[in-house]
Structure formats: structure tokens, C-alpha cells
Amino acid sequence: MQNRVLVWLGPASVILPRNFWLAVHCYYPLMAIDSFESARLTARRPSEGDFSTFRRIHTDKGTMKALSVDGSILTERQSREVLDRHLKHWESSGFGIWLFSTKSNGASIGYCGLRRYELHGREEIELFYGVRSRHFRRGFGFEMASTVVGQGFKELGLPSIIAFTLEENAASRGLMVKLGMKYEGVIEHAGLPHVLYRLTNPHGWL
User: Fold this and answer.
1) Rounded CA separation 50/70 (Å)
2) How far apart are CA 31 and CA 39, in angstroms?
3) Which domains does the chain have, with CATH numbers?
4) What's the pTM value of the predicted model, to 2 decimals?
5) Contact, 144 vs 175, CB < 8 A?
């Protein structure tokens, strides 16, 4: 039963595949969550005008060492392609990446979001994030991730969320564990082994 969910339909109920929610919303995008807040941060949906923000992140060597497979910074063309993919995901899904900044002075912290990811022939929702290196070790990664997970579960009604990282990325693995995610094994991503974690919606499937 772990791959199926019980859905209440008034006087009747029906058992549906676990990824039914995803299939439905491929065709019926959710009402967009354009902005929200956490204790110290504000989050907003990106736009075409945010290319410079993405470039600052993608040219931050400390950040990219944790984000890219080979630790390389991205070219302008690659940054444009990344931004375009995120904007298209928003248009098709009603959710995606959010850009985070501090409430105190508006400083750019990084990004965090949710995106569709095909795993073993089934569509999942992946949590991903990136923190600018100047803001490392201040708890911003966890604050962004926990807030986005809350949006995914409470507002979007996702049944579960996955995350993965390189095996040697102890910081990201620690964040996933701190979120309450459970280790599920090793998968291949970008030609390299990554450890996979999952968090199930504690509020149930909505």
C-alpha cells in the first residue's frame, strides 16, 4: 500500500496510485505561491529580470563547489538556460524555485525550490537549494528548505518530497536528516552516484 493513497470523495472513497496528484497537476497547474516568509527571510518567485541574481550565484565558486558535479562556475549561456528552465517549470506547474533574501536588509541569500524529477520511471518532487558562500554556516539553508517543505506539504498537498546529493556532501546530507528525511539508497544522477532521501507528508495526502 505504500505506493497508493486513499482519497475521500464524499460518500465514497477510492485508492489511487501514489503519483496520481502529479499526473493531475501536469494538466491543471496549481494556483501559484508567488511569495512567503520565514523567520528571517522573504521568498519570491523569479522573473526574467532576475538573471543578474542567478549569475551572482552561478559565479560564486564556494557555492558552485557544493552545487555542480565538477564544482565549475556556469557560463552566461548556462545561467540563462537554468533561469529559462525554472520559469517554464513555474508556468507548467504553478510552483518551482524561490529566491530568498533577508528581511533585515534585503541581502540575497540564495534559492530553494521544488521541481518535478523522474526517478525509476515515476515522477517525484525534488527539493533543491543553493546558498551564497558568504552566508554559509548561518542556518539559512535549513531555514529555506524547511519553509519550502512546509509550502509543499501544507499548501500543495504533496504526498512526499525527495532530495539527493553526492555521497561526500556531508553538509547537504546533514540538512536532509535534520529535515526528517529518511535515507532510501543510492541513485545515479549526472553520471555519478548520489544518496537519496525522502520525507513523507506528515499531514497526510490532500
Assistant:
1) 25
2) 24
3) 4-200 (3.40.630.30)
4) 0.84
5) no
Whole-number Å distance between alpha carbons of 178 and 198: 12
Rounded to whole angstroms, how far apart are CA atoms 165 and 170?
Answer: 9
The span from the CA of 112 to the CA of 121, in Å, is 25
Contact between 11 and 115 under an 8 Å Cβ cutoff? The reply is no
Phi-psi region of 172 (alpha: psi -120 to 50; beta: other; left: phi over 0): alpha
Contact (Cβ atoms closer than 8 angstroms) between residue 144 and residue 176: no
Structural contact between residues 163 and 181, judged by C-beta atoms closer than 8 angstroms: yes
User: pLDDT per residue over 139-198, tens digit each?
Assistant: 999 999 999 999 999 999 999 999 999 999 999 999 999 999 999 999 999 889 999 999
How far is it, in rounded angstroms, from Cα 68 to Cα 198? Answer: 21
Taking residue 88's Cβ as centre, other Cβ atoms within 10 Å add up to: 11
Beta bridge partners of 98: 112
Query: Residue 98 and residue 45: Cα distance in Å, rounded?
Result: 5
